[in-house]
Amino acid sequence: MSRDHVQSAERTDAEAAGPALTGAETPFLELLARGASSDAYEQPVLLARAEGRSAEAIAALEHAKLLALRVRADLEGRRRREAELSALFETAHDLAGLRDLDSVLQAIVQRARSLLGTDVAYLSLNDPDRGDTYMRVTEGSVAARFQQLRLGMGEGLGGLVAQTARPYVTDDYFKDDRFQHTHTIDSGVRDEGLVAILGVPLMLGHHVIGVLFAADRRARVFEREQIALLGSFAALAAAAIDTANLLTETRSALAGLERANEIIRDRSGVIERASDVHDRLAELVLRGGGVHDVAAAVSQVLDGTVDFTEAVDAPSAPLEASRAEGHAVCHEDDWIAAVTAGGELLGALVLRGHPGLDPVDQLTLERAAMVTSLLLLARRSAAEAEQRVRGELLDDLLDARDRDPRLLRERASRLHADLDATHVVLAARLDGTAPDADQEAAARRRLWSAASHLAATRHGLAAARDGGTVLLLPLTPGDIAADLARTTAHQLGTAVHEAVTVGASAPVQDLAAHSETVTAAYAEGRRCLEALRLLGRSGDGAAAEDFGFLGLLLAGDRDIAGFVDRTIGQVVAYDERRGTDLVRTIDAYFTCGMSPARTKDELHVHVNTVAQRLERVARLLGDDWQSPARALEIQLALRLHRLSAPAQN
Questions:
Q1: Which of 50, 285, 333, 552 is the most exposed place for a label (fewest CB within 10 A)?
Q2: Residue 299 CB partners (closer than 8 Å, separation 6+)
Q3: How many angstroms separate the CA atoms of 226 and 117, rounded?
Q4: pLDDT confidence tier of residue 8, bands split at 50, 70 and 90
Q5: Which helix (H) or strand (E) holds 461?
Q6: pLDDT on residue 186
Q7: Cβ–Cβ under 8 Å, residues 65 and 44
Q8: pTM exceeds 0.70 for this model
Q9: Helix (H, G, I), strand (E, B) or coil at 179
Q10: CA 376 to CA 481: how far, in whole Å?
Q11: What's the gap between Cα 464 and its chain centre?
Q12: How many of the other CB atoms lie within 10 Å of CB of 58?
C-alpha cells in the first residue's frame, strides 16, 4: 500500500472517530511527553469548560484526550512488554550461567512478583520421597507458617494445577470450591492474608514437578498476558531445576571417581604417612612441643580430628580396654588410645569420626599416645620444679629478712614475677575434715598444686605453710583485696572440689627491699581467715578491709555465735518465725541516730509502723534495750550478725 493510501486511511479513521483536530492535541502531547498519570488528561477538558469555550472546542479536546490515552496505553503496553522480555532474558542469562539453583529460583520469583505487581510470589516443588509438595522459594511473604507449608498431593489450588497441568486462577481463594480445601493450607493462606491467587505448572516433559504462584491480598482479576508471563517464568524455573539436577548428577559421578582415585592414592601413601608422622613427632619432642601440638600433627597425618582428653572425660570401658591391651580401641565412630605412664592413666587421644582405620594408621595413633605420655611427664616434672622454686622464694620472703633485694628481684624475674608491683598476701585453707591423715595430706597437696598453678598464671608466688597455703598475688589496678580473696577462694575451691576459705591482707608494696612486710601481711591474712571461720563463712574470701575494728575482736577463739544469740537471738528468731523485719528495723534505727522520723524514711514505712516494731523489740529484749550499755552490745551483735551472713558478690 502506498503512503498516500495510508494517509488517506488514517484521515478516514480520524474523521470517523471524531471531529478533526484543531490544535486541541497540544496539551495532551505535553502530558504524553512528561509521562503524566491518566487522571491528568482530564485537566485540559475541565479547564476549557471552566473558561466557557465552545462545544466544538470541548468536543475536539475530548477527542484528542481519547487519542492521547490510547497512545499512552499503547506506550505503557510496549514498556511493560519490554520489561517482561528483559526480565525473561535476564532469567535466561542466569540459567545459562547456573551456579546456585536457589539464587536462580529466587530471582525468578522476585521478577515475577515485580512484573505482575502482586503482593506475594512463591514456588513449590514436589517431593517424590515424601509424596507431598513443599514451599521452596517465597518473595513478599510475612507469615512463618505459610513459608513452611507442606501440602499433600492434589490439595489446594496448587494440587488442581498439578493434576491438570494447566494454569488456574481464583479471584477469591476462600470462596472458590473448584479445588480441595484443607485446614493446613487454609490456615497458611489466612495467615498470609491472600485472596487472589494465580498458579501455573512447572513442567519437565509431561510431568509436573511444581507450581509457580503469584498472589494478592485483595480481590483481583489476572489478565491473559499476565498468566502467559508467569507461565514463561515457570518454564524457565523448570529448566533451571532440570539443569541443576543434571549438574548434581554429574558432580556426584565426578565425586565418585575422585573418591576412587583418593582410595588408590591413600593405599599407596600409607607407608609414606607412617614415616612422615614418625619424623613429625620426633621433631615435636626435640623442639619442646606440647600435647596439643602432637594432636594437631596426628590430625593432619590421619586426615581426621584428634583431641587429647582427660581420663574422666573419655568413655571408661574402651579407655580401660586400651590401657590393658596397649592398643587403640574402636568405640562407635571414634578410636581411643590410652595415654599411660608407669601404670598411671594420664588421659587419652581420641580420633573422632573415623571408624575405618587401617593397621598402619592405628599404629600411628598408638605411637602418638606414647609420645603424649612422655610430654605430660616432662611437663609435670617442669611444673613441680617451678612450683618448688616459687615456694622457696616465698618462703625466703616470709622467713629470711636479710636477703639481698637485688637477688630477690632476679629470682622473681626468672619466674615472671615483679616484686616492685603492688601485691596481696592470701592465706588459704581447706575447710573439710579428712577421715585420716593420708587423705588430709593428699587434700593439702591438691590445694598446694592448685594454688601453685594459680600463682604461675597470675605471675605470683605460692607455698605450703601452717597446714594450708599462702599466696602472693599481684593486685590489678582498679581491683581491691577483698575481691581478689573471694575470686581466689572460688577458683581454688573449683580446682580441688572442696570448700576453700581465703583471708587476704591489705595491699603491700616494695617487697624486695622490705620483705618483713610480707610476714606482717601473712599474719593479717591469717587473722582474716580465722575471722571467717569464726563467723561460719567457710568457702568464702575476705580481706582486712571487710572487718575494720572487728578484726581485732575476732583474732582469737571467741564464741561469736553465742554472743549474737544471747544479745539479739530472740529478735532474729522472731523474724524467722513470723517473716517480720525487726532486725533490719533496729539496725536502721541506730543508723539514723535513734530517730523514728528518719528511720521511717530509711525503711520507706509509716512512722507508726516504726513505733509498733520498736514496741515489739522492747517486749523481746526488755525495756532497757536502748540504754547506752545495752545499745552498744546490740549494735555490735547486729554488725556480727550481718558479717556472718554469706557474702553477696
A1: 50
A2: 305, 306
A3: 10
A4: very low
A5: strand 461-465
A6: 92
A7: yes
A8: no
A9: coil
A10: 35
A11: 42
A12: 18
